[in-house]
């Protein structure tokens, strides 16, 4: 047997194992003086009765009975191997790059001879521990809060419309106030002709800066009603209440306004298609549409974003053959982020893909499908409709239309009856069109620019006091009742 191929000398038969156990029991009785007495030391004369041929675990090296002194031998699993008997908790050896030993438990030193023969089987574990050691010695990762924001020469594009924008600067912004008539005229002329001059890097050239500032304040709008603010249009009933609206009860006047508005919208789309207009906005009392020319926002074709939308609007667009997508919903689906609206997934058409039959497959596999009452088709349909409606008026309801479908969207908006309010303070008033360039039927409008800096150096107070008074007060509704100073530091009560 010992000469056969594949035979392992460390293998033992079950009968031999039982014989060794009986021999060990007789040997233990002779080694110990009593149940609690001291253990006798091994001697060469006891080699025939001691388990000299017993290995600590199989496979493994034989114990040297001459070098071991002490009590009885711990019983081990005869069918165990190195892989399932080694435990890092019992013996932890970590080696450095030069082969030196980093750490070892002192209580396990007596097993060095037994473990020395099994180090080859622990090569993978040692490499793993070595990698963990190098990882622990590497410098700690920098906390995200300590990382300074990147400094860029440009900032991300924000396509949202705002009613107010505040710029702050440590330098004076006096050049943005009170332009001269010639500077304002030159700025408006450059705006109409799309002429741009390089801006000076020094604030000493105030005329050029004022001209460029006036050029950037101009925009074009349709319709133009001086006595009514036409932006914003969503939730702007207070702005229209009490205003004179002669078209509200005049159907002929409403048709005339819509006819002129349709011409202006068609003109804007033609400019956009010819790449003579980069973008324009359509602001209705229910939603806002942003049209962008091809090449903007990473799109190779004309695109349109509608926000917010409702189920009725999406259904009407699908009925007209307008293909669209829900970009925010698709981003959440890719990133697997939880939805605020519902846990179901949404498709490109705005409906939720919820396979009710597939959700009961696991019940069928368990054999309990008959004990669970399956919802009927009406309940399922009502739940789907409720989930779809819950998406309405949410940021996730934004709709994106691209390519030739934007032209179909233009015709849809012109013929959409719900685009104009039928009742209320905005009844009969067409949506507002805003663009950075001139278009048919548009009127030039100017944004109002006012400066956050007043010179109070000659007001009669100390400059430090003036600087303190210019800061916003943090007391709120309370007042100071006690102030004390110690070592040029103030403490107070309010």
Describe the structure.
InterPro entries: Donson. It is found in: Nucleus. With 494 residues, this protein is α+β, with helices and mostly antiparallel strands. It has 4 domains: 14-137, no CATH class; 172-239 and 250-308 and 405-452, no CATH class; 325-397, no CATH class; 463-493, no CATH class. The chain contains 14 helices and 11 strands. The strands form 3 sheets. Strands 7-6-5-4-8-3-9 form a 7-stranded antiparallel sheet. It has a two-stranded antiparallel sheet with strand order 1-2. The N and C termini lie far apart (98 Å).
Outline the secondary-structure elements.
Elements: H1 14-31, H2 82-85, E1 94-95, E2 101-103, H3 112-116, H4 123-137, H5 181-193, H6 206-217, E3 218-222, H7 237-240, H8 251-273, E4 279-283, E5 288-292, E6 303-307, H9 311-319, H10 327-335, H11 361-366, H12 377-389, E7 399-402, H13 405-415, E8 432-435, E9 443-446, H14 463-470, E10 482-486, E11 489-493
Antiparallel strand pairs: 1-2, 3-8, 3-9, 4-5, 4-8, 5-6, 6-7, 10-11
Helix pairs in contact: 5-6
Region (Disordered): 1-80
Main location: nucleus
Keywords: Developmental protein, Nucleus
